Amino acid sequence: MDTASAYDILRMTIDTILLACAPILAVALLVGLIISFIQALTQIQEMTLTFVPKIVAIFGALALTLPFIFGTLTRLSDRVFDLIVSGGV
User: Fold this and answer.
1) Neighbours of 80 (CB within 10 A)
2) Which of 31, 39, 52, 65 has its CA 20 to 30 A from that of 8?
3) What global pTM score does this model have?
4) How far apart are CA 80 and CA 67, in angstroms?
């Protein structure tokens, strides 16, 4: 295994991780911004108001995007296993 193939596998892994976690992070960001905006307008600084809706939204987004995440991770593992079988690693 040379450094170019190790770099390629590492790049594919990082790209896959970023792609798989992007929907969850986007939902968390959007819900956090909405809650912060509501808190700024109403001046309610309750800590549970920050965490509970965000956790519910994250679990909902996770339930909806789980097939996408699984497919993305499966494609990465298939590519890496193909490299191993072909002797590229």
Assistant:
1) 16
2) 65
3) 0.80
4) 20
